[in-house]
């Protein structure tokens, strides 16, 4: 357990930050699922629009270092490839 005032404060901050980061990661997963669902539905226009908003979410979360930038790039690449494969 934290013994000093500084350590107690850092423990409190860590709890708040963990809750914030967890909600951000949840939003990320929701955005990715929304794109996949739109692609499966078959509506290319709607899927493209949802993809653009999810790319924004991915970039924002990567900029905050909640996920690694390469992981964000990998997700964007795979979603874009799935979107492109829809028209073929």
TrEMBL record:
The gene is rpsT. Belongs to the bacterial ribosomal protein bS20 family. SUPFAM superfamilies: Ribosomal protein S20. This is Small ribosomal subunit protein bS20. InterPro entries: Ribosomal_bS20, Ribosomal_bS20_sf. Residues 1-27 are annotated as: Disordered. Keywords: Ribonucleoprotein, Ribosomal protein, RNA-binding, rRNA-binding. GO terms for cellular component: cytosol; small ribosomal subunit. GO terms for molecular function: small ribosomal subunit rRNA binding; structural constituent of ribosome. One of its GO terms (biological process) is translation. Pfam families: Ribosomal_S20p. Binds directly to 16S ribosomal RNA. Coiled coil: none annotated.
